[in-house]
Protein backbone atom coordinates (compact mmCIF):
# COMPACT_ATOMS: atom_id res chain seq x y z
CA UNK A 1 0.00 0.00 0.00
CA UNK A 2 2.88 2.32 0.79
CA UNK A 3 4.35 1.87 -2.69
CA UNK A 4 0.99 2.53 -4.37
CA UNK A 5 0.52 5.69 -2.31
CA UNK A 6 3.94 6.95 -3.41
CA UNK A 7 3.12 6.25 -7.05
CA UNK A 8 -0.26 7.97 -6.78
CA UNK A 9 1.33 11.00 -5.10
CA UNK A 10 3.96 11.13 -7.86
CA UNK A 11 1.32 10.97 -10.56
CA UNK A 12 -0.73 13.64 -8.78
CA UNK A 13 2.29 15.96 -8.47
CA UNK A 14 3.06 15.45 -12.17
CA UNK A 15 -0.52 16.24 -13.12
CA UNK A 16 -0.49 19.39 -11.01
CA UNK A 17 2.80 20.51 -12.58
CA UNK A 18 1.48 19.82 -16.08
CA UNK A 19 -1.73 21.71 -15.35
CA UNK A 20 0.11 24.72 -13.96
CA UNK A 21 2.53 24.88 -16.88
CA UNK A 22 -0.31 24.53 -19.38
CA UNK A 23 -2.21 27.34 -17.67
CA UNK A 24 0.89 29.54 -17.68
CA UNK A 25 1.50 29.06 -21.39
CA UNK A 26 -2.18 29.59 -22.22
CA UNK A 27 -2.08 32.85 -20.27
CA UNK A 28 1.07 33.97 -22.13
CA UNK A 29 -0.49 33.04 -25.50
CA UNK A 30 -3.63 35.01 -24.68
CA UNK A 31 -1.57 38.04 -23.67
CA UNK A 32 0.38 37.81 -26.94
CA UNK A 33 -2.87 37.54 -28.90
CA UNK A 34 -4.24 40.67 -27.22
CA UNK A 35 -0.99 42.53 -27.91
CA UNK A 36 -1.06 41.51 -31.57
CA UNK A 37 -4.71 42.56 -31.88
CA UNK A 38 -3.83 45.99 -30.47
CA UNK A 39 -0.92 46.29 -32.91
CA UNK A 40 -3.21 45.32 -35.78
CA UNK A 41 -5.70 48.02 -34.81
CA UNK A 42 -2.93 50.60 -34.53
CA UNK A 43 -1.49 49.59 -37.90
CA UNK A 44 -4.92 49.81 -39.54
CA UNK A 45 -5.39 53.32 -38.13
CA UNK A 46 -1.93 54.35 -39.34
CA UNK A 47 -2.69 53.01 -42.81
CA UNK A 48 -6.02 54.88 -42.89
CA UNK A 49 -4.25 58.11 -41.89
CA UNK A 50 -1.64 57.58 -44.60
CA UNK A 51 -4.35 57.00 -47.22
CA UNK A 52 -6.15 60.18 -46.13
CA UNK A 53 -2.94 62.21 -46.31
CA UNK A 54 -2.24 60.74 -49.74
CA UNK A 55 -5.72 61.71 -50.92
CA UNK A 56 -5.28 65.26 -49.60
CA UNK A 57 -1.89 65.58 -51.30
CA UNK A 58 -3.34 64.41 -54.61
CA UNK A 59 -6.24 66.86 -54.25
CA UNK A 60 -3.83 69.74 -53.55
CA UNK A 61 -1.72 68.78 -56.58
CA UNK A 62 -4.82 68.66 -58.77
CA UNK A 63 -5.91 72.09 -57.53
CA UNK A 64 -2.47 73.56 -58.27
CA UNK A 65 -2.51 71.99 -61.72
CA UNK A 66 -5.98 73.39 -62.39
CA UNK A 67 -4.84 76.85 -61.26
CA UNK A 68 -1.77 76.62 -63.47
CA UNK A 69 -3.90 75.59 -66.45
CA UNK A 70 -6.25 78.52 -65.91
CA UNK A 71 -3.27 80.91 -65.69
CA UNK A 72 -1.89 79.50 -68.93
CA UNK A 73 -5.23 79.89 -70.69
CA UNK A 74 -5.42 83.54 -69.53
CA UNK A 75 -1.99 84.28 -71.00
What does this structure look like?
With 75 residues, the protein is mainly α. The chain is built from 1 helix and no strands. The chain has one helix at 2-74. It starts with a helix and ends with a helix.
Topology:
Elements: H1 2-74
Question: Tags for this entry?
Answer:
75 residues, 97% helix, mainly alpha
Shape, per Cα inertia axes? rod-shaped
Strand content: under 5%
Helix-strand string: H
Per DSSP E runs of 2 or more residues, the count of β-strands stands at 0
**Low-confidence spans:** none
Task: Specify the number of helices.
Answer: 1
Q: What value does the average pLDDT take?
A: 94
Distance between the termini: 110 Å
**Would you tell me the structural class of the helices and strands?**
mainly alpha
Radius of gyration: 32 Å
Main beta sheet, described? none
Helical fraction equals over 70%
Quick overview:
The protein has about 80 residues and is mainly alpha-helical. About 95% of the residues lie in helices and about 0% in strands.
Amino acid sequence: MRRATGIIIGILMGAIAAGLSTGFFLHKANADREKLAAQLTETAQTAQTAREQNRQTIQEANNKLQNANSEISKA
